[in-house]
Amino acid sequence: MDHRPTLSLLLLLLLGLSQASGNEFHDEPDHVSITSAILESNNGTNELLLDGDILAPRTRNAMKCFSSQYSCLWKKSSDGLVYVPYILSAVYSSLEVETIETAMKYFHGKTCIRFIPRKTQTAYLDIQSSGGCFGTVGTVGDRQTLSLAQFGCVQHGIIQHELLHALGFYHEHNRSDREQYIRINWQYIYDFAVGNFQKEDTNNLHTAYDYSSVMHYDRTAYTNDYGKETITPIPDPSVAIGQRQGMSDIDVLKVNKLYQC
């Protein structure tokens, strides 16, 4: 009996391998930038978002977050630690809860921030799967909304990105001193997204501009022309910008400086 595979069987095997390879790539999130993942998750949300994923404040101007009159920082305890109480929606699976808590624990090992389950604290983070990746900047009122949608947002880098917003940080490309480090190519930005690239009156904490910050948009964010850059590093345009792995060393430094850890 001839046990050699027939031509049709070989073609079926090749087709199956091709489909499996394609599905594997599709399921692997690392090929999508953090900016793309966040913006895709937020597409269609009914929330009013600033800069792509910042929930517009209803009680005061978040741009004044760092002034002496308006403080949006979490309070430091007498033991020198900054406790941020949180609650997690019951919809998250045990694996999703573990992923969120692992991203939080990274702060514990590098900064004086401590994310703790809420008991009776008045000010707290309410982490929900609300159809996108977004939240408020710092403390604006008592209950701080932080949305981490189950499909697309529960990833280490995105969680830390949104937690940094909750601690009071804006996107790196919106820094007040950015002209020395990046060029915004306005002609390649969708009209509806122009506001996401405006400079903010930020407190840069005497830190270096951080191309590798988990808070930095990638170079093609909101591009209206496929392949064209909306953000170009200067003076060296080849510098890598934007990543999805998690907090950079300078991200950690900024937290420590802002909260005087």
CATH topology type of the domain at 37-171 and 253-258: Collagenase (Catalytic Domain)
Strand content: 5-15%
- The SSE order reads HHEEEHEEEEHEEH
Q: What is the CATH superfamily of the domain at 37-171 and 253-258?
A: Collagenase (Catalytic Domain)
Runs in which pLDDT lies below 50 for 5 or more consecutive residues are 1-31, 59-64, 66-70
Structural class: alpha/beta
Major pleated sheet: 5 strands, mixed
**Strand tally, please?**
9
Basic shape: globular
Task: Round the mean pLDDT to the nearest integer and report it.
Answer: 82
Q: Please give the share of residues in helix.
A: 25-40%
Strand order in the largest sheet: 4-3-5-7-6
Under the CATH scheme, the architecture of the domain at 37-171 and 253-258 is 3-Layer(aba) Sandwich
Describe this structure in words.
The structure is a single chain. The chain is α/β, with parallel strands linked by helices. It has a domain of 141 residues: Collagenase (Catalytic Domain), CATH 3.40.390. The chain is 26% helix and 14% strand. The chain has five helices and nine strands. A five-stranded mixed β-sheet has the order 4-3-5-7-6. It has a two-stranded antiparallel sheet with strand order 1-2. Helix 3 packs across helix 4. It starts with 6 loop residues before the first helix and ends with a helix. The relative contact order is 0.16. InterPro entries: MetalloPept_cat_dom_sf, Peptidase_M12A, Peptidase_Metallo. Its EC number is 3.4.24.-. Keywords: Disulfide bond, Hydrolase, Metal-binding, Metalloprotease, Protease, Signal, Zinc, Zymogen. GO terms for molecular function: metalloendopeptidase activity; zinc ion binding. It holds the Pfam family Astacin.
